[in-house]
């Protein structure tokens, strides 16, 4: 039976970036489709100003993620993102950009997510900027999504809120308090998968998932 994996995430979540080595391989599993659902965890009331204390906490956590997953958190990111006291820690713009991709070229949303994460954590780019995000999407050849990202219209914003609503409903239903989270659905049956166990040994975790 076909299975759907609902992936709950936030583009500013370091642990979600840490899952980057696992997600593309999920789509290779037979009979499995991957559905991305941004939660908006760090947008709206979840957004905040970057300060020295929060930057220090984030960097310490990022180093733990890097040791566990091998994903790079560069000095460019530390200096230009965590060191920026003017721009807010706000995933709203990146979430809107991903919704624009989901509307215009949905098969490439995971690619766009990973490019946005790389831009932040490796290149040290400001992915809280609609202009920066639009330029990034143009670079991927996602021109329609880029145009909508730079000047979000009512349809895009409405679609974005609908996606956030679906993700938050799932989080409440399964009593989830953070991301990333993965919910497997097969027919009417749904269950939460423990994604944290995949970080130290992705292949073993994938083998277990394939056997479900």
> Which CATH class?
Alpha Beta
Secondary structural class: alpha+beta
Q: How much beta, percentage-wise?
A: 5-15%
Radius of gyration: 17 Å
CATH topology: Glutaredoxin
CATH superfamily descriptor: Glutaredoxin
What count of domains describes the coordinates? 1
So what's the overall shape? globular
In round numbers, the mean pLDDT is 95
Which short descriptors sum up this protein?
single chain; alpha+beta; 212 residues; Glutaredoxin
Describe this structure as you would to a colleague:
The protein is an alpha+beta fold and 212 residues long. The chain has a single domain (3-211), classed as Glutaredoxin (3-Layer(aba) Sandwich), CATH 3.40.30. The chain has helices at 14-18, 23-26, 52-69, 75-82, 92-104, 109-121, 130-139, 143-150, 154-173, 202-211; strands spanning 3-9, 32-38, 48-49, 88-89, 181-186, 189-193. This is DSBA-like thioredoxin domain-containing protein. GO terms for molecular function: oxidoreductase activity. Residues 8-186 form the DSBA-like thioredoxin domain.
List the helices and strands and how they pair.
Elements: E1 3-9, H1 14-18, H2 23-26, E2 32-38, E3 48-49, H3 52-69, H4 75-82, E4 88-89, H5 92-104, H6 109-121, H7 130-139, H8 143-150, H9 154-173, E5 181-186, E6 189-193, H10 202-211
Describe what is shown at a glance:
Residues 8-186 form the DSBA-like thioredoxin domain. The chain has 212 residues and is an alpha+beta fold.
